[in-house]
Amino acid sequence: MTITIPANLAANTAASATALVEKAANAPKAELHIHIEGSLEPELIFALAQRNNVKLAYDSIDALRAAYAFTDLQSFLDIYYAGASVLLTEQDFYDMTMAYCERALADNVVHTEIFFDPQTHTERGVPIETVVAGIDRALADAEKRGLSSKLILCFLRHLSESDALATFDAAQPLFARYARLIGVGLDSSERGHPPSKFERVFEKARALGLKLVAHAGEEGPPSYIYEALDLLKVDRVDHGVRSIEDPALVTRLADTRVALTVCPLSNTKLCVFDDMTQHTLKALLDKGVAVTVNSDDPAYFGGYVNENYRAIIEALKLDDGEVYTILRNGFEASFVTPEERAALIAKLDANWNRATA
Ligand code: ADE
Ligand code: ZN
Known about the structure:
single chain, alpha/beta, TIM Barrel, 8-stranded parallel beta sheet, about 15% strand, binds zinc ion
């Protein structure tokens, strides 16, 4: 049987989705999954390449952008690491971070928790102190404009455990020096590099009282999410969208309220899902999982955080209550103090209840 939706009802539904997209865009929000190197727009890559005399494999901005046709995570990472090769000085890291902060502020992000990949830079001879100093200085400036932030150091999982341990040792003084640097994470090529490979370095980070996150279940199987929870003892799981394949895991995530930092545009760009209507975000939300929405690598995936909200509201036909829950989850799952969390949620509530959709 085919059901025909009356034209006026269909038009109404489209109009209410548009209003909800706008309401979500205007709402104060948190972003909990953004790789700062993934915010490097092609224009800035070329400007920094020129400033630093770095030779790129692409001879124009358009040629670089044309290469952003990814088939999986690895095909993206190859270009992402090439893009990051233009970053050399403290000012470069400042400029990249400030450009992201401008975009985040324009999307009404009021709190952001930013990943950075020190090994991508130290292996090119850039000291880790230079990386953190430039990022932190920009975040301090953005804080004066209403964007609070935390910083999370990610280990590259395609490199060895001993490389991660050495990176952690080199970063130890920075954890003491920079109040914003509060945690460690795990990113890069997931398949073949399970969380278990990094159990010891995460144990050391936990002993220092750092927050712990890991990419798991983006391309990798649910067993990687179990490893992130049981071996790394993470506070949040980055992506985690493949958890839907294991009902017991979904129940566990829902019961423990371990949040997933989901990145919808990333998942479709990297072919985790064929298209946005296939995304598991709503199914996970329906089962009580603390899902959040984030941009991952916005310069590469076609949009900052508000574009991610737009994509799921339209494709998954989310309603007002579901969007509010996702926005609130962002604050609930953030690594702020209980007082800061209460203030952020009060700000969201005041905005959401005032707005119409
Ligand atoms: N590094 C930058 N973006 C990433 C992603 N989506 N998955 C794993 N590592 C990454
Ligand atoms: Zn990521």
